[in-house]
Every structure is written in structure tokens, then in C-alpha cells.
Amino acid sequence: ARQAGMVYPAALVNDTTAPVISSVNTTSGGGVTVRWTTDEFADSTVVYGTQSGQYTETASDPLYAKDHVITVTGLTPGVTYYYRVRSTDRSGNTAQSAEYTFVGAPTFADVPATYWAFPFVESLYASGITSGCAPGLYCPENPVTRAQMAVFLLTSSGAYSSQNPPPDATGIFADVPISDPFARWIEALYNAGVTGGCGVDGQGQLLYCPDANVTREQMAVFLLKTADPTIDPPPATGMFSDVPVDDPFARWIEELANQGITGGCGGGLYCPKSSVTRAEMAVFLVATFDLPMP
Fold it and tell me: Is 100 exposed, middle or buried (0-12, 13-18, 19+ CB in 10 A)?
């Protein structure tokens, strides 16, 4: 459409030919970026939706250009979207491309939509619980340390967040100096009655072992006590063949299973001494704290 108050050449006023669209393509990264070209200056619009021929969403730029770039955000990772591009020239002639598709890109490059824990990891990100282990990465197979676990638990439970962190640390544990960025989270977990640490040093001071990996048996206690500090699971019955009923972790592990949070590690086993990976942690947290799934 022509802008009021502007003088247009007669050739432009009499233009009845729509732009020619070509070179439509997409790239992923921070959303999906759609690019195309036109043979004359025109605006830029992408219409898209999750069903062929039904375009319920629009992203546009009113500025006239020949090289068009529109970035589409807010997509559901792993979902296929159908789209067309449209360009309207300054005389109001509109061209529309054929239908194409793109797939909502995953948040983390190392957790594709085909990865077994993909929806759980995406849930943690969408809930503001993690931004990954490095820019664009989640490191799903890396073990979770006890320091990291404190942050995961307290943010997932809603007790604290990055915008509302725990109070400053006071120096409860000898191996966690107050200058440590995890200190406030670790001490908040202690003050909530979730952990008493991992032992004492030679001077009788409490230790937390912040860099030690969290095991699956320890995680059972941490999860359940964070969700309900008053919980007192009943005696174990022998649910898992690798967790004898007299094991001090047995009743916690079986309670975790009874609540539907875990089914073990396969074959009637729980693998209590195995370290919890970041992928497994995502599943545990989503299940325990009922976090929304994408």
C-alpha cells in the first residue's frame, strides 16, 4: 500500500505485477530463521502452523527489502511446522511462496528431539531451572555433583530461583567456603533439613563433599525430603534385587518407586551406587515436582 503524502512515479503507481519470490531457506539457532529474495522491494511475512495449509501464526517485517530475513521464535522443539512466505510490494501486489516445512529446533544442541530424555530436559529449561552446562549445551551424560544438585532441587521445588536466591552463606560446612557460588544453595538445603552433609573432618566440622557425584541412592533421599521434609517412608519390602531391605537407603528408594518417580534402572534393579547423570536428574526433577512438559 502507498504511504499518504508520498509522490510515486507513474510506473510505480501503475505497477500490477507481484514480486517474484525465490531462494526460500531456513537455518536454526535461537529460533528458526527464514530467508528469501524478491526481484523488487517488498515487505516480509512468514505465516506458519502445525498443520499443512493452516497457518495460525505470523511473523513479519514491514520494511521493504529484496533480501528478506524473518526469525521465528517460541516454537515447540521437535515439532514440524508448515509455512509460506509472503511479500507485498509498494503498489500492494502480493506474492506467496509454495508451502515448506521446518522443525522447531531443540534448546540444546546435544539433546536432540530423538534423545530419550529430551522432553524432560526441555521442561527444566522452560521452567527456568537450567540454562545448560555451556552456551547451547546441556551435557546430558555428565554426572551431577552434590553442589549442582542443591541448586537443581531448590529451584525445581520453587523454594528459590536465580532471581530469588537463598540467603548468603554463613560457613556451615568446612569444605564449602562462603565465597563458593554454590554455598548459599548448599546451606539452604541443610537449613531445610534435607541434608546433614557427608561427614565431619578431623576437627569435628561438618563436610558436604560438594564435588562428589550424587548416587542414585542418595538422590532418592534428597528428592523426597526436598518435596516433603516430614516424610518418613515405611520399611522396605525388597522391591529391587540390588537393594536389600536392611540397606539404610532401601525404604527411600522404594518410596520413590511407589510414588511413580522411578522404575529402577532395568531388570528389577535400581543401581543404587551409580552416579546420577544430568539427563536422569531432569527426569527425576520433572516427576518429583510435577514440572510442565513441553
Answer: middle
